[in-house]
Amino acid sequence: MSISKDLFTIRGKTALVTGGSRGIGLMIARAYVEAGVKVYITSRKSEACAVAEASLSKLGTCTALPADLSQMGEIDRLVDELTARENVLDVLVNNAGATWGADVDSFPEDGWDKVMDINLKAPFFLTQKLLPLLEAAASEKDPARVINIGSADGLHNSLFKNFSYGPSKAGLHHVTRNLAAHLAARSITVNVIAPGPFATDMMKPMIDRMGGAIVAQVPLNRLGAQDDAAGIAIFLAARASAYITGAVIPVDGGLIAAS
Asked: Is 165 one of the annotated active-site residues of the chain?
């Protein structure tokens, strides 16, 4: 039997990438745009969205729909705006995230709630509200895809005092498995990319402060970069991954394997 030539082709699909104006979200959005996907990006800051939209539109099709996904009303508005533009959604990437650092003795309630709302609550409810568009795109041969961006910190204890971040990502990993089981019959797969340390804006303060110690934990001896995010995101959106659901895939240079 010959290998299908379109196993890794995602051209012509439609995707929404949350937190798509910077960091890993921007890396994934760029990969999709370059691969011929019609990409929508969203993030809380409209200016950052506009800058990313302008940059990515030079490479393909990208539209920014700014929204603060920590607010249920904003999730509803985003869904309404997307539904007004599209009849189907092939790929949802739940990437928008937040972190908060403080000593255990002084870690604040708002730091806990902000991280949980963005990292755990928003992906579930955005997925829930986009199910009609995802189902409209889904088929047995090529399911619709929900790709949640978890974290290596949801699989092991972090070096940092981010007491709500790791639990929020561990919760997202488990919600992913739950959703995968419930949505498989509707031809929707749900998987997690669990990045290790990447060279992103969120990581920059930590990299500036202790970059050597961070890289020293990674067996491949480097930080993650554009192609590392692009490769796994394209695979999980392509027909090559049609039989994978409920998986948590570390993209971490061997960090978890060695921890």
From this structure: yes
